Amino acid sequence: MRPVYNYIRDGAEIYRRSFATIREEADLSGFSDAEARVAVRIIHACGLTETARDLAFTPTFYDAARNALLAGKPILCDSKMVAHGITRSRLPAENKVICTLDDPRVASHAASIGNTRSAAALDLWLDVMEGSLVAIGNAPTALFHLLEMIDAGAPKPAAVVAMPVGFIGAAESKEAVLTDGRLPTVVVKGRRGGSAMAAAAVNALASEFE
Questions:
Q1: Largest Cα–Cα distance in the chain?
Q2: 21 backbone dihedrals φ, ψ, rounded to 5°
Q3: Residues 6+ apart with CB under 8 A from 3
Q4: Which of 44, 84, 109, 145 is catalytic?
């Protein structure tokens, strides 16, 4: 095929230049080196360098999340888009990636508890939630329900990537998990978030190589 357009075709070079651009344009001065690696991946997923000012890490988040992955704990995802966005080859201990949204029990359970399917699916995590890494990139109801489950005595995950997106409840759910303070977490404040950003955060945590 005759080349028509002049563009970079080397995937590794595209990543290298992208991350270099982010580090030039985003203000990462408020982050530790480890947090900055996570921030760069999140910004890469959305293309918005100003996202850096809306990222908030609780002090123990990085170590808690990274240690959970090194220990082989599962990654629990609220949506299939988050689960599919996680690069398995980067995971340090062949960690299981679990999304229960399609479980046949979810629809009836959602009706019984009067909540969304995304929230109801979390109730199927109880056996694997202790010490896990939770990644919420879609539903604010899932993040609110996670806090309700902890209130009710559910096992606590090691850390939470909290990045639900949207206009109803997204900002409020992320403020709730920060205010609650019981779970090490990273959030992107406000309406922004999404599966790509949540998966990017997990991919950054999975390997110390940018």
A1: 63
A2: -65, -45
A3: none
A4: 44
